[in-house]
Amino acid sequence: MGFYAVQDIRLVYPTYFPKPVYNFKKNPLKSSTVALGRQLFYDPLLSRNNTISCSSCHNSKQAFSHAGNHLSKGVEDGIGERNSPAIFNLAWQKTFMWDGVVTNIDVQALAPINHPKEMGEDINAVVRRLNKSKEYKGLFYRSFGDSIATAERTMKALSQFQLTFISADSKYDKVKQKKAQFNASEKAGYALYKANCSSCHTEPLFSTYDFANNGLPVDPSLNDFGRWNKTMEPQNKQMFKIPSLRNLAFTYPYMHDGRLKTLDEVLDHYEKGIEKTPTLAKQLQKPIVFNQKERVNLLDFLATLNDSAFISNTAFQKK
Predict the structure, then answer these.
(1) Calpha distance 2→6 (Å, rounded)
(2) Domains of the chain by range and CATH?
(3) 169: DSSP letter
(4) What values do phi and psi take at 9, rounded to 5?
(5) Residues 160-177: pLDDT tens digits?
(6) pLDDT digits (tens, 9 = 90+) for 127-143
(7) Which of 62, 98, 104, 235 has the fewest CB atoms within 10 Å around its CB?
(8) DSSP H or E run through 240
(9) d(CA 288, CA 277)
(10) Strand partners, 213
(11) Contact 99, 93 (CB under 8 A)
């Protein structure tokens, strides 16, 4: 089977979750490789000037988002083009980034490393630095059977660590497991969610992880048309990846460019801010209107999706 093919840890997730889409046969989870990925995730060595790590924009205590920042921040005070997405439950996702331009998590980290306003570095320069480090020589040896760092090994270690980020311990999950019950407001909000939100934000992951135009007008300063920016196909105009509704308390501001600061602003958008364009999602052809009590109920239900155990899990934090 070879040194690297020996899997010694399993991905643990609830029985009501679907089967992961990630192919673990090609990159079997291994505790030593997860440990290497953890070290890499928190190391600013991956950036051009040794100041930005993956964790700079993906904070474990903010569900691996960059709460409070509407656009990502990078080397030399560079400002990225989009809001840093929260990263969890990645094994159930086929595409990555807001526009889905990355189709394999094993290479996803190349995008921020190479982005001039994010980490601003060339992966080959990163690999040269890793190969000069006595500590990393030991970590790569324990993971791969020899001490040589390569771009592929670096990417796979980062993806292994991130694949362990499973958020499945919220009140909603305890209700699903019959360990808790919704109160009256949460139960009413759950019904509102199922009637108005569930076709795009499908439980239990609370997203289809597909792409949709949710009627957000294009910011003229960013000129971001989502998938269309990469494909130039008309059907992809203003299509962005649908985020999960899990952990919203920790991942503000919202939308691909972080323009909406609160969940009330998000609900305002769906009631009176939708811009009708040819690719607008069919579910949003009519505004979604809630009265004040319904808003409270829905927000109470959404709060049951916040997973405090996930954000406090020391296995995901810097050693």
Answers:
(1) 7
(2) 31-167 (1.10.760.10), 171-309 (1.10.760.10)
(3) -
(4) -135, 155
(5) 999 999 999 999 999 999
(6) 999 999 999 999 999 99
(7) 235
(8) strand 240-241
(9) 17
(10) 280
(11) no
